[in-house]
Amino acid sequence: MTTRRLSDPERLAWLRLARTETVGPVAFEHLLQRFGSAERALQALPELARRSGRAAPLRSPPEDEILRELETGAKLGARLICACEPDFPSRLAALDPPPPVMWSLGHAELLPQPSLAIVGARIASAGGQRFARQLAAELGQHGYVVVSGLARGVDGAAHEGALATGTVAVLGGGVCDIYPPEHAALHARIAGEGGCIVSESACDRRAIAKDFPRRNRIISGLSLGVIVVEAELKSGSLITARLAAEQGRDVFAVPGSPLDPRARGPNDLIRQGAILCESVEDVLRSLSGQASLRERERTYDPDEPMDIDHNALRAQVVALLSPTPVSRDELVRATRAPTSAVMAALVELALAERAELLPGGMVAGI
Questions:
Q1: DSSP structural state of residue 210
Q2: Going from the N-terminus, what domains does the chain have, and what CATH number goes with each?
Q3: Based on the number of CB atoms within 10 Å of its own CB, is 15 exposed (0-12), middle (13-18) or buried (19 or more)?
Q4: DSSP structural state of residue 128
Q5: According to the model, what pLDDT value does residue 312 have?
Q6: Residue 127: predicted pLDDT
Q7: For 71-112, what is each residue's pLDDT tens digit?
Q8: 115, burial (CB in 10 Å: exposed 0-12, middle 13-18, buried 19+)
Q9: CA angle 200-167-162, nearest 5°?
């Protein structure tokens, strides 16, 4: 994706495409690559959805709805950053694919700085919260911005510890969706004093369950590594740790007593190869022993030109899909078609709600 600043009309079209139903980050990136601009992609969407068998018309939000979102953000003092723009954090831009847009409230200059995430249990022990607060403060003293999710427990303690040096709160809802309510004062301090609040969602959107995996992906994507302080085995913090590993980030885990269910998640991560973290020195030692994270520019390999029956290929792809996710590379091998043609078929099926494009190059049938 070429780095450039968008004009106001381009920004409007970019946000409108990002807010179109069934257009997730994977489809968004492919549509830009295929059509060259968000405006041309929007013009092509109705036909793409129709020929893939979508029954109802595909809804792209009207321009006045997008203008209201931009006006709401401006009134709040928030800033919209698109994935192609130079101010978009490079670590996040390196994801495959990155979130198309991100709202920021507060000190956006913190976003490109070296960052580490601290996440953990909402119902955290007093000792776990104390450790998270102290670790965050010490990481800040060593020049790291601390990223977390503004949840109860470990997240809130981590933000508190890093307020003096810089902290980023990633929300599932919009940047003004304060949850839990008791974190209203902390939210205000982060936005106004020592940090930045970011979200993919519109500024006034209320979070729903499906927003939190996307939030967790941004937490890990902004960070050089993720530190899990306390987490039960079925925990969103472990999802963040898994995403971090998939993104090539370090995963750290704070060990705990086997008698405490909140220690089972970190202890299991250590069994799987996570880096044991008992102090800030463990984190600093690991980071100093590795080369800096290389930001990679995502490019598409050119396919050899060949005649494609796109209707037949789409039907072939549908037959290969199931609810069990499969890699897009596997579909390319199975169809023996060019990558770009298979990807085009998958995006059209996603627009018709017959396929789900997943991060990490995976796809599932619906």
A1: T
A2: 8-87 (no CATH), 105-288 (3.40.50.450), 310-365 (1.10.10.10)
A3: buried
A4: H
A5: 85
A6: 95
A7: 999 999 999 999 999 999 999 998 988 999 999 999 999 999
A8: buried
A9: 155
